């Protein structure tokens, strides 16, 4: 598909941009451009544009505003040590985007069109790459239903958009261990949309996350909806548990857990390092017992935004417990460094995960 390039009438001046990307934080600064592609039933995907990042007019009856037919992805463009920009496993994001689309009764987007859209905007706004140590361009592709219709059925019109947000290092060197709160609320039920990356899942996680913040914690742990017993994941990150005998487990995907690309990469790297890695259900009571007996030595969360983050403290209705020394453990740090190294080009990419952009 050919992209029509629409000239930006007034891109952000260089000095203003430099200021904006000096310490961008996360998700607050946006670049000059966006990619937009329309879908109409019968016609398919058409009218691809690379133009100014600007507000999009919506009819008040646009179905996304009423029935939340919306999905998204999150990936990053990194800078390798030689200055080349690169994406990390973008094919996996393209594939997962279509899996989400299917679950939300939305049209699939050809995987090469997803990747081409990402490449186009990253190249166009390469000047927005933040110079800060550990900085990246966070890429947010998303799709929503855009038909003016209040009946309840899948829409016949959609928009696919890609925007870019310069991001700083989530945690500077010596990443802290986070404190997590075990919520009584659940995020995903069997047969629901837990495995799809859709806005609705996040809407449901905001009250429990607010509760965690109010109690002084950083994140929420969600348990399974049926028994409220089995650990599933955080609101936006997958979990791993490391034992003193060198075993490592993560909850199995089963429709209620988001299949993280970081999760998958970490399993591969850990196995390569000789660890015994299993996808295994793990209960909240066992977690507490194992942490207290010292059998469990580390717990970490992982996802694109923060990569790998140690969990130091766990709190819930039944009290609190600490994992290991309460700080980042050995394996957490090793795996984090290895993954970040591959993403930055300082560790050899033996899996073909890095896609260079020039
Ligand atoms: C995106 C996401 C993750 C992490 O996935 P990555 O591909 O590793 O970034 C984990 N859990 C939820 C609920 C998510 O939305």
Overview of this protein structure:
This protein folds into two domains: 4-167, Aminotransferase class 4, branched-chain amino acid transferase, N-terminal domain (D-amino Acid Aminotransferase, Chain A, domain 1, 2-Layer Sandwich), CATH 3.30.470.10; 177-344, D-amino Acid Aminotransferase, subunit A, domain 2 (D-amino Acid Aminotransferase, Chain A, domain 2, Alpha-Beta Barrel), CATH 3.20.10. The model has no long low-confidence stretch (mean pLDDT 96). Helix 3 (90-103) crosses helix 4. Strand 16 and strand 17 (319-322) form a beta hairpin. It has 358 residues and is α+β, with helices and mostly antiparallel strands. 26% of the residues lie in helices and 29% in strands. The two termini are 20 Å apart. Residues 74, 197, 233, 236-238, 258, 260-263, 303-304 line the site of pyridoxal-5'-phosphate. Keywords: Amino-acid biosynthesis, Aminotransferase, Branched-chain amino acid biosynthesis, Pyridoxal phosphate, Transferase. GO terms for molecular function: L-isoleucine-2-oxoglutarate transaminase activity; L-leucine-2-oxoglutarate transaminase activity; L-valine-2-oxoglutarate transaminase activity.
